[in-house]
Amino acid sequence: xxxxxxxxxxxxxxxxxxxxxxxxxxxxxxxxxxxxxxxxxxxxxxxxxxxxxxxxxxxxxxxxxxxxxxxxxxxxxxxxxxxxxxxxxxxxxxxxxxxxxxxxxxxxxxxxxxxxxxxxxxxxxxxxxxxxxxxxxxxxxxxxxxxxxxxxxxxxxxxxxxxxxxxxxxxxxxxxxxxxxxxxxxxxxxxxxxxxxxxxxxxxxxxxxxxxxxxxxxxxxxxxxxxxxxxxxxxxxxxxxxxxxxxxxxxxx
Length: 253
Description:
globular, 0% strand, single chain, mainly alpha
């Protein structure tokens, strides 16, 4: 019973908060599901599936308010589709602890950028899609998503800010892209774990994930300013970095 109650509540809380920044919460929920007694492969598959639902409903809401930049997202998504399988292929070769340490350092820098960097606002005429840069970033996100089993939203914020997007548009565009990267990750797991998944747990947490997507996107759209959304994203990136550092310290000991 604890698995279902705590799984539902943790999914609702973390999905509501993370959606404000346009990212999923798999990096938090997968360990929670595991600690509650779910085998790790099933926990990972479930977390990614919830990410698809959560960012899907959030993307729909963001798109209604024109907060998803599809011109940039399409290049990111195509590159993710291409490079994510490559990350999966190398997942058994690359030293993940070293990569995670680099990832944590990047997130600390990215979080600082989101909290303290304020680029000049670009109007519609000046905004550039930068397809080459978008494809390169998307490729990196896709590779790391396949390698680490994460949605990759933490990488996108600084790049989208650099392009000149407002905080709310960063959240909307990130959610839309993460929906696809999570879907790719989920499909990679589902073939192996389909018969072992806890479908009652999935049904309950799916309701919580959808509700979290609605709550989080509503807060971003109507209750927070663009600057506040950027700050939320920065805090999320610091939390992800702290979680990675904690895990690495535990492994070392």
